[in-house]
Design brief:
The chain has about 120 residues and is mainly beta. It contains no helices and eleven strands.
Length: about 120
């Protein structure tokens, strides 16, 4: 069974940091574009960050540029999201997704596989 499992979420004060992980299993994701998305209460799910198959290309939503960093370890079949200088508006459920067509992934509906999410709560 192919799965994406997120971890590393939690409660943090504004200005703090968290590192999310997304572990893939059931097949190799070395050739996949990977992405992080988030959904805050009462809001639409939105794109956060994406990385291409070898980590050579990344892109970010404007709201997180300069604070978040996406990376991957293909040997571990895992993608990470380092989140620094967190703000209360970053509070959301964070999801990872994989896409085997295209270089990057910007749309949740384009994903081949999707995780179940991990909660991030930033207190003021």
């Amino acid at each position: 069974q192919v799965r994406l499992v997120e971890s590393g979420g939690g409660l943090v004060q504004a200005g703090g940091s968290l590192r999310l992980s997304c572990a893939a299993s059931g097949r190799t994701f070395n050739g996949a574009a990977m992405g992080w998305f988030r959904q805050a209460p009462g809001k639409e799910r939105e794109f956060v960050a994406t990385i291409n198959w070898n980590g050579g290309t990344t892109d970010y939503a404007g709201s997180v540029t300069g604070r978040f960093s996406i990376s991957r370890d293909n040997a571990k079949n895992t993608v990470y999201l380092q989140m620094n200088s967190l703000k209360p508006e970053d509070t959301a459920v964070y999801y990872c997704a994989a896409r085997f067509t295209g270089n990057l992934i910007y749309y949740w509906d384009a994903a081949s596989y999707r995780g179940q999410g991990t909660q991030v709560t930033v207190s003021s």
